[in-house]
Amino acid sequence: MGSTSLFEDEPDGTQEAIMQATYRALCEHGYAGLTIQRIGDEFPKSKSLLYHHYDGKDALLLEFLSFMLERFEATIPDREHDDARDHLEAILDHALPTDLDSERAEFRAAMVELRAQAATDEAYREHFSRNDRFFRRRLAAVVRRGIEEGVFRDVDPERAAAMMLSAIHGAMQEEATTDTERTAAVRNELRAYVESRLVAPDDESEAIE
């Protein structure tokens, strides 16, 4: 998680170049300070292309969020060859990294700003609902697999996933909106939660096998 950018390669076409410019402008200015002009300042081609494809900032940002969700889905650790416990820990590390560089930290803060728009904007609400639904289902699927393998206790996978997702969102929001550094503490507590609440005792695992 120490890379300096979510876009490590040259953009593949105009659409990806627009998404990269949006990402850079969002990291620099946040949602409140973001304008089409500032996105255009990061865009290597004619700014008129932005105005041609998008009616305004929010239309562009909603497409950007969909683009980033596709990237997020593609980069979620897929480690079916590992046991469920290792797989779950890898997903939690991916979702709540403790070693963000300054650019990624700025981007995470901007995403917290964007999530706040969902309180009053139905389009943003729909996006973030879809995003959370995907991630919650992925977490629940790993917990369910762990139960089937005898690695995890017989817990409710959906409730476990909801709790972990809420903890992740809470840490991101608190760190983005206060002077408190919360990510490392919450990640440690999630690790403790997996160990104490999910991992099956050795005798229980042996009984299932």
TrEMBL record:
Keywords: DNA-binding, Repressor, Transcription, Transcription regulation. The keyword Acyltransferase does not apply. Residues 35-54 bind DNA. Gene3D superfamilies: Tetracycline Repressor, domain 2. The keyword Endoplasmic reticulum does not apply. It comes from the Archaea. Residues 12-72 form the HTH tetR-type domain. GO terms for molecular function: DNA-binding transcription factor activity; transcription cis-regulatory region binding. PANTHER family: HTH-TYPE TRANSCRIPTIONAL REGULATOR BETI, HTH-TYPE TRANSCRIPTIONAL REGULATOR RUTR. This is TetR family transcriptional regulator.
